Each structure stands twice: as structure tokens, then as C-alpha cells.
């Protein structure tokens, strides 16, 4: 007799084989064994034309009911449930539309989306469509902050240069950030946008008091920076990280240097920094470095602006730098 073949899923994990009833506090519960997988192939089913059109043709497809004419995007039904299951046909919709909700912004993302944060996530009704498409939202004007994209804001679909056939191949940005040519162009790609011209906030002219506050803040920041660079623990917060940051305030401009554990404040203006920070009152930043209020919060509250969305990660590291220094001081105090 042939030996029984060992299966990939062990016998006891097949629901019908080992499901049983267990009793807890005189109540019976059905306990089913099941298997879970982490690697899998998945057919996109009726969504395939939608994702293939994004990947290969830079088109957004919907499905149109041949009876009632409703256009659903994405095309999630082959037959209209409102019209006795009349067949639907694929149609292309426009790449411009209006937000039908104000998108919440994710600042602190899970590891899977860490390199994409901050991003907005909301629903857009593209012109020619009757249903809303869920999309990620970005801005080219600097950090994404609340109020920049609201319900009713007109946005345009942007296609990533490298597309794999996923919803993350596209995202939207406000049309107010685009030229008329860009708005008119179908299949506008990420690399065609200008990400290097963010809108810096403008400050009113500085008074003598502003200049005095600036000088005093700078002095105190240098002192904190010195402590940070000497703290073994604080250094770990910016290990392997290097950024030259230009900081603009009402009373004056200065530089912050993050260099693999070293943190330094300089009095000079930087010509080609990695990114720009702007805050009217330098004490906002000083407080953050002293661990009196997070710098990330200052960004979200629009007290501090940064020129590159993805540099929110660096702001996050500055907060850790401040926190680690305080932690080390506390430890030393209790020793
Ligand atoms: Zn219909």
C-alpha cells in the first residue's frame, strides 16, 4: 500500500477534520481550525481592466450601466444592481474631479507607509463618474497640513512614473498647484511636477524685539545642541542621518546640521540646504528642542512649516533627539 502523502496544510487544520465544540461557563462555542497565509497570488477579477489601464495607458476606467447610465469608479460591478442586473460597459472618466470629503491626514504611519507620510486619504468624484474613488493626496507646496485639501477642492490624478498595477500607482494633488498645460494633459506623471518650488510663508518685517528674541533663542539652542551632541543616548536618535537645514524666522535665519549623531546650530544662511524650516517665532523650535511641546505638533498646528513633505521624518527625529536627551538626564539624576 502506498504511503499516505503529507499535505501542505496539516490534516488537523482542515476545518471539517478538527472543528469541535468547547464549553466555557456552561456555554458551548464552536472552535474551528483554519490556516492563514502571508504570501499569495491574487486575481484582480473584474478590477483587472481598471488596474491594467492605470499601469499601461494612464487611464481611469469606470463602468457604465447601459440602462440607467450610472458610471461607477472603480468599475466594481459587471451588472447594474439597480437595473435588474443589466450589463455595464467600461468607460474612461476624466482625471480631474472634486473631493467629496475633507481628507484626514496621516502623519504617523505604519512601517508600510512610513516613507509616504504625511499623506491625505480621501474620496474624489472624477468628472464623468457618479461614485467616489478612494485616493492618496499630496501637495507640491511643502508639508501637507489640514485645510490645504478640503471637501470641494478640485484635484487631479497624478500617475507615478513606475507603475505596477496598484491603486498606489496614482494619487491626487490640487489643480491650483498646476499650470493650465498640466491640468489639460492626460496621464500627467509625477516627474512632470515641480516639487522644488514650495510656497514659503512670508513674515512681516522684524522689530528690534524680534531680533533680540532671535539672538537669545539661538544662544539657547546652541547650548541644547551641545548637550545633545554629548549625550550618548540622544546621539542615537539621529544616528546615520545627515541633513543641512535652513531655518527662517521673523528675527533672522540660521542653520541646523544633523550629521550622524552630531547636532549643531550655525549662524550662517544656507544656500542649498536639504530643506527649509520656517517658523515666525524661533521659540517654537527652541521649545521643541527642550522637549516642551513636540516639533511635529508645531508642524501639524501650522506654527512651523517645512519645504518638503517627506522631511516630516527628520522633524520626527528632532523630537526623538529632544526626548532622548531628557531621558538620559532623568536616568543620571536618579542614579
Ligand atoms: Zn443601472
Protein architecture, described:
- This protein is α+β, with helices and mostly antiparallel strands.
- The protein has 2 domains: 45-191, no CATH class; 208-334, Nonspecific Lipid-transfer Protein, Chain A, CATH 3.30.1050.
- The protein is built from 8 helices and 17 strands.
- The strands form 4 sheets. Strands 7, 8, 9, 10, 11 and 12 form a 6-stranded antiparallel β-sheet that branches. A 5-stranded mixed β-sheet has the order 15-14-13-16-17, with helices on one face.
- β9 (119-126) and β10 form a beta hairpin.
- α4 (208-230) runs parallel beside α6.
- The protein is flat and about 75 Å long.
- The N and C termini lie far apart (73 Å).
- The mean pLDDT is 92.
- Bound molecules: zinc ion (ZN).
- Zinc ion binds at residues 65, 67-68, 70, 80, 82-83, 86.
- Zinc ion (ZN) binds next to loops.
Question: Which secondary structure elements does this structure contain, and how are they paired or packed?
Answer:
Elements: H1 15-18, E1 20-24, E2 27-31, H2 48-57, E3 60-65, E4 71-72, E5 79-80, E6 86-93, E7 96-99, E8 105-106, E9 119-126, E10 133-137, E11 154-159, E12 170-174, H3 180-184, H4 208-230, H5 232-237, E13 242-249, E14 252-259, E15 262-266, E16 275-278, H6 282-289, H7 295-300, E17 305-306, H8 312-334
Parallel strand pairs: 13-16
Antiparallel strand pairs: 1-2, 3-4, 3-6, 5-6, 7-9, 7-11, 8-9, 9-10, 11-12, 13-14, 14-15, 16-17
The chain binds zinc ion (ZN).
Amino acid at each position: 500500500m502506498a504511503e499516505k502523502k503529507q499535505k501542505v496544510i496539516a490534516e488537523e487544520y482542515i476545518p471539517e477534520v478538527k472543528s469541535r465544540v468547547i464549553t466555557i461557563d456552561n456555554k458551548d462555542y464552536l472552535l474551528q481550525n483554519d490556516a492563514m497565509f502571508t504570501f499569495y497570488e491574487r486575481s484582480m477579477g473584474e478590477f483587472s481592466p481598471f488596474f491594467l489601464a492605470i499601469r499601461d495607458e494612464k487611464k481611469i476606467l469606470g463602468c457604465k450601466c447601459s440602462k440607467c447610465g450610472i458610471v461607477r469608479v472603480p468599475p466594481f460591478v459587471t451588472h447594474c444592481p439597480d437595473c435588474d442586473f443589466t450589463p455595464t460597459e467600461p468607460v474612461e472618466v476624466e482625471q480631474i474631479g472634486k473631493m467629496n470629503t475633507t481628507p484626514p491626514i496621516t502623519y504617523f504611519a505604519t512601517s508600510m507607509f512610513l516613507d509616504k507620510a504625511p499623506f491625505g486619504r480621501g474620496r474624489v468624484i472624477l468628472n464623468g463618474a457618479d461614485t467616489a474613488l478612494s485616493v492618496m493626496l499630496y501637495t507640491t507646496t511643502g508639508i501637507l497640513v489640514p485645510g490645504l485639501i478640503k471637501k470641494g477642492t478640485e484635484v487631479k490624478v497624478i500617475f507615478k512614473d513606475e507603475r505596477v498595477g496598484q491603486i498606489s500607482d496614482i494619487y491626487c494633488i490640487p489643480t491650483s498647484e498646476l499650470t493650465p498645460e498640466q491640468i489639460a494633459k492626460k496621464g500627467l506623471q509625477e516627474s512632470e511636477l515641480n516639487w522644488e518650488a514650495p510656497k514659503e510663508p512670508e513674515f512681516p518685517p522684524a522689530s528690534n524685539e524680534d531680533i533680540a528674541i532671535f539672538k537669545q533663542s539661538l544662544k539657547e539652542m546652541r547650548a541644547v545642541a551641545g548637550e545633545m551632541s554629548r549625550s550618548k543616548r540622544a546621539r542615537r536618535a539621529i544616528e546615520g542621518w545627515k541633513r543641512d537645514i535652513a531655518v527662517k524666522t521673523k528675527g533672522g535665519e540660521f542653520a541646523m546640521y544633523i550629521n550622524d549623531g552630531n547636532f549643531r546650530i550655525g549662524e550662517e544662511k544656507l544656500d542649498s540646504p536639504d530643506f527649509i524650516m520656517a517658523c515666525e517665532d524661533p521659540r517654537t523650535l527652541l521649545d521643541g528642542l527642550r522637549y516642551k511641546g513636540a516639533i511635529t505638533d508645531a508642524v501639524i498646528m501650522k506654527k512651523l512649516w517645512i519645504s518638503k513633505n517627506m522631511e516630516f521624518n527628520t522633524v520626527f527625529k528632532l523630537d526623538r533627539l529632544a526626548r532622548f536627551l531628557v531621558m538620559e538626564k532623568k536616568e543620571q539624576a536618579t542614579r
